[in-house]
Amino acid sequence: MKWVLFILVLSTSLFAAKPKSKAKANQTNDDEMWVTTPVPELPANVTHHTFRSASMSREVGYCLYLPPSYEKSPQLRFPVIYHLHGAGGNETRSVYSASILHEGILAGQLPEMVMVFPNGGRSTMYQDSGDGRFMAETMMIKELMPHIDSTYRTIADRKARCIEGFSMGGRGSTHLAMRYPELFGSLFNQSGNVYHVSDVSKGPNAYLGSDPERLKANDPYLNLTKNLDYIKANLRIQVACGTADPDHLTTVREYHAALTSAGVQHSYFEVEGLDHNQKKMIDGRKATWFDFHIESLKLNHIELHYLKP
């Protein structure tokens, strides 16, 4: 089915507070960084868990949303959305979106899905650090995702696996989807910078190091080119940003332009007047927030289950 590329600029009177200062890497105790304690009150059907990361030899936290039929219908398996938090956040930071999903499911408007909220570290960009200290990418791809598929009744197929995130999470989800498109059916970048990581003209990369091959392997634009045929045929992409978010809008537009130039059909929208505020972005479009992922699941012929209202 042909996908439609559209640019939708939505007017809104919502204005976010000034962006918080970005957390710097290597300034937090490693153990405190990867598991959040105490765990704050979580939305309905969201629970907190940990698993052992072999690559970092420590426990890593994640939050998990299970749909209403998960316990009472053990024969069912469900598609899954991985939602990645922003810089300075943790596994409890972005669970608000699970409450929107839960409300839609209870109303019979959204299909039942699992949501996973990993702890990706303070400012890892969901990449492995050059010094091997923070293995956020390895943890996500080789440890957490297999753990989720083997522990819970997810549909362990890329066609039923969605990835998204806000800010650093948008950047990280784009990085992972461009590098491993064979693992995901859809990507939703929410105000996440997309940088030319291999461009060292502005100086060395303090996190990834100076190895040119490592930088190339972590460059989303190079991975887009490398995996272009597969991405065009198999990965659906949506990108969004607020027009009052200059620190992120520039590279978001550049990524949108790169997708367009490469012939990758995708969905793109900007929210007029919106600053760097995920909750307000969601609240302005609650009724359609999960539509892109759901459409991707339907196009991939994934069986979806709805509650009868």
Summarize the structure.
The protein is α/β, with parallel strands linked by helices and 309 residues long. 32% of the residues lie in helices and 18% in strands. The protein has a single domain, classed as Alpha/Beta hydrolase fold, catalytic domain (Rossmann fold, 3-Layer(aba) Sandwich).
Report on this model:
The protein is 32% helix and 18% strand. The protein is an alpha/beta fold and 309 residues long. It has one domain: 3-Layer(aba) Sandwich (Rossmann fold), CATH 3.40.50.1820. A nine-stranded mixed β-sheet has the order 1-9-8-7-6-4-5-3-2, sandwiched between helices. The two termini are 31 Å apart.
Structural class: alpha/beta
The CATH architecture assignment turns out to be 3-Layer(aba) Sandwich
What percent of residues are in strands? 15-25%
Indicate the low-confidence ranges by residue numbers.
Answer: 1-28
Number of structurally distinct domains: 1
State mean pLDDT (0 to 100 scale): 91
- SSE order: EHEEHEHEHEHEHHHEHEHH
What name does the CATH topology carry? Rossmann fold
Total of helices: 11
Distance between the termini: 31 Å
Radius of gyration: 18 Å
Q: What is the name of the CATH superfamily?
A: Alpha/Beta hydrolase fold, catalytic domain
The main β sheet shows up as: 9 strands, mixed
E-strand count: 9
Largest sheet: spatial strand order: 1-9-8-7-6-4-5-3-2
Provide the CATH top-level class.
Answer: Alpha Beta
Shape: globular
